[in-house]
Amino acid sequence: METEVIAIDPVTPRRGPLARAVEVLRRGGLVAFPTETVYGLGANALDIAAVAKIFAAKGRPATNPIIVHVASSEQVSEVAAQWPPLAQALAERFWPGPLTLVLPKNPSINDIVTGGGDTVAVRLPAHPVARGLIRAAGLPIAAPSANLSTRVSPTRAEHVLRGLAGCIDLLLDGGPTAGGLESTVLDLTTTPPMLLRPGLVSPQEIEEVIGPIQRLRIPDILLPSSPARSPGMLRRHYAPSVPLECLSASRPRVEALCRAGLRVGWLTLGPAARDEQSGLFAIELPADPAGYSSQLYAALHTLEALAPDWIVVELPPDGEAWLAVRDRLRRAATEPIRQFGIGRP
Ligand code: TXA
Ligand code: MG
Asked: Are residues 72 and 153 in the same domain?
């Protein structure tokens, strides 16, 4: 299949491209579209065969459930069996926006969407293209990130094509996405609610609205023995194809790797070294969490395309402001995280 690519205005999307996308969704096809977090790969959430195509295109394990996207809080009743007061309070504060709520599922939602479970994850995205598309389709839209399973999520149309060209019907190219990291996932079926995936909405912001929530500590999430509360929390979930290592003091490591003759990609926090060595590709990321989040995946895609032998990432500071970023970096790391020191190669 050839993937059709249509440019779309990210602020005031025109009717034409949206209508074309709706046509594809209604006949059971796959449409990649921008959201305020990352690009999503959408299908009609009520069409089992269409949702099956998402799993096939991504190589996604059938046990990993998919978020259902809606255009209004009212539409949630088509998807979820309950709308508890906590959900209402969170929706008033954070929707439309990058917060996904896990709720008991409505019988209309097939097991294929929920990975066989009895809960459904629901999100009301803020991006005008995403919202316009869902509203125009008049359907709940099942959409994971538009990348191959276990690879880095896409924040630009070209990232989507790198992984999925020829496997999906249509891509709406709305330019780079602003947020850059996936939504926060909060399970409202437990008491207290549980943070399943840190994201652009922080735990403190949630607690200001609904009081204390449970957090999985990142080391718990990464222990292979810990039960997978959210199957997407598999350790290697956001991985680039090159060995990747995170260190809190990365410069000596980078210098050693270069001396050993390796071609090294380096993500720095704030200004990089100007003393560029041959075989070193350094990318400076902003030293604030929002700026860093918005550029991290694009930087990883850029480095991946350069195909270095090794990627070194300067680990951002501890603390909840960096929770989502550190979570994604830990998942992307192929090497054990060491605070200091020089190991292999
Ligand atoms: O920002 C986002 O959330 C993007 C955009 C496209 O909306 N979507 C996204 O989807 O990141 P995906 O499939 O890459 O990640 C969804 C995460 C996974 O970790 C999945 O396991 C979890 O949400 N999830 C989905 N449904 C769930 C459920 N019923 N219970 C628990 N976790 C669920
Ligand atoms: Mg994903």
From this structure: yes
Q: Is 35 in the pocket of ligand 1 (CB under 6 A)?
A: yes
Put simply, whether the predicted model's pTM sits higher than 0.90 gets the answer yes
75 domain-assigned: yes
Look at ligand 1, atom 31, and give the residue with the nearest C-alpha. 230
The finding on whether 177 has its CB within 6 A of some atom of ligand 1 is: no
* pLDDT band at residue 236 under the 50/70/90 scheme: low
Q: Which ligand is nearest to the CA of 65?
A: 1
CA of 143, nearest ligand number? 1
Per-residue pLDDT reduced to its tens digit, 82-138 = 999 999 999 999 999 999 999 999 999 999 999 999 999 999 999 999 999 999 999
Q: What is the DSSP string of 117-161?
A: -SEEEEE----HHHHHHHHHHTS-EE--BSS-TTSPPPSSHHHHH
**Which of 154, 186, 220 is a domain's end point?**
220
The whole-number pLDDT of residue 20 equals 98
Whether ligand 1 lies within 6 angstroms of the CB of 196 is answered as yes
Query: What CATH number has the domain bearing residue 204?
Result: 3.90.870.10
Claim to verify: residue 213 and residue 326 sit in the same structural domain: no
Integer angstrom CA distances of residue 93 from 96, 143, 154, 208, 241: 9, 23, 27, 10, 38
Q: Give the span between the Cα atoms of 236 and 264, in whole angstroms.
A: 21
Indicate if ligand 1 lies below 6 Å from the C-beta of 100: yes
Give yes or no: residues 112 and 180 share one domain. Answer: yes
One domain for residues 268 and 187: no
Nearest residue by C-alpha to atom 32 in ligand 1: 230
Domain of 301: which CATH number?
3.40.50.11030
The residue nearest atom 15 of ligand 1, judged by CA position, is 144
